[in-house]
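Quarterly update from the structural biology core.
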Amino acid sequence: MKQQTFNKMIVTLAVCGIGFLSASAIAGQDEFQRQITQQVLQAKQKLQQAEAAKGAERQKLMSDHMKMMQEIMGKMQAMKPKAGMTMQEHEDWINEHQKLMDDMMGQMMGAQHMLMDMEKMPMNMGDMHKN
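Predicted structure, tokenized:
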């Protein structure tokens, strides 16, 4: 029980740190990109919670994370720079979009590694393999 509480504290501190570090990145974004950034941070928090969880809880958190990622990806695919941007604004928008895509890719890779690690565990490791 103490380990679980400790893990939750670590996840909370990590998420807070990420929030403070990403505040400077948010400054150059348009409103839609800011909303997506918040959703990406929430998905990252869900992934961190899944990393700290075990068994069925981990599977549920992973499922929630994947659903969040699908929703975000759909929104990002529909994103377009607004009309009338200067060339510099357009480049800045593209750079911010790329940062979001890079963060998404990193989360997807982390989730994939977790899923692969879960598959490698012996079948007698409790309820980790139950759907």
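The chain has four helices and no strands.
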